[in-house]
Amino acid sequence: MAETLAAPPIPRVRAASLLLTMLFIVSMLNYLDRQAPIILLQSIKEDLDLTDTQLGLLTGIAFALIYSTLAFPIAVLADRWSAKWVLSICMFIWCSLTSISAFAQNFWQLAAARVGLAAGEAAGIPCSHSLIAASLPPEQRGRAISLGSLGMSVGGMLGLMLGGWLNDTVGWRAALLVIGLPGVAFAIIFALIVPNARSPTATAPAAEPFWGGARRLLATPSMRQMALAFAIQGIASYSVFSFSATFLIRSHGLSATEAGFGLGLATGIAGIAALLLAGWLTDSVAKRPRHALLLPAIAFTVSAPLIIAACFVPDARVAMLLLGAINFCSVFYVPPAFATAQRLADPHLRAQAASIIVVGVSLVGGTVGPWLVGYLSDLMRPAFGAQSLRYALCAATVPTLWSVVHLWLASRTVDDDVAAVEARNHRPSL
Known about the structure:
By secondary structure, this protein is mainly alpha-helical. The chain has a single domain, classed as Growth Hormone, Chain: A (Up-down Bundle). The protein is 81% helix and 0% strand. The chain contains 18 helices and no strands. It is globular, with a radius of gyration of 20 Å.
């Protein structure tokens, strides 16, 4: 079934290009606002007299619990109302709260700002992927998701590099203020320029209960295993990158500018390369969805020994390169995971399908990962002193390998599950 944008005056190719460009900027702002505080953690810790456990709560539970809790309700609203308008409003909220967090005077005020920011950012991935799925056929969605998601790496890179420089130049408070304001203006531009996108069959059944979509999606074996896999691996990715800049500052004696620039460049370039390659490979194996799920399984397997190496290599530059390689492996899952999730969803459940992956990664990975590493670091401080964080980060290897088991289980049933969904919705075989 052909799927087109709902705005007839705009040619399909031009409309799709406009959409991907705007979603790239949305993704960039999302990760710019999310990652900037990572490079500022040491300054925030010293200014507000916080512990590593509190830092882990700020980057983990304070953000991820709200982010994951609201992702699904926001996705339901996007599916039933308008993904475009939900995304525009939520973007305005999260960018505003990034700037407002600059005025926090204690842990609880900063945590409250992070909670509000998380509520807004919860709309980012579900709404973006719903717009993409309504605009492009399955064999083009891997590359589209990778292009739209490039902002993750660009935004994360800018957040670390710009945040580190602003931190050393004007302080962490001014850094947050400067980083948040441009997104407020862009949220208004996005609402005015981007057309609505909706598939003709994307109307939810009138009697569909609020949680009915989630139950239907998770009843699919491959979707259930995918959600488990990416949630568990999220523990590793969140823990490593929440503390990677702090690790470089403490264990290698770098300044915030040095750590932010080196880490931002290494992880940003690696993330861009991973998304482009994974998007191309995902579309190349579109006829066999199981092969798409084996792509992140391979990447996660490679990532585990890289984590150990990054923690103990004596040269800071090599550590940055290894952290970049880890980011390559961590980001590689995005196109195959979300493209497959869209193929496992009925048209009126697209945002909800994306939100299930987001909820798993954020609720489990985002809450458990940073908190656990911060707690382990504090626990081992009497034995290892300032180097305790180095040893705590090694725990990330366990969930990395664990997730591979669930991806393999998902790959065993995903071909049949996708075929059933496409037959139910009368979609042509690839």
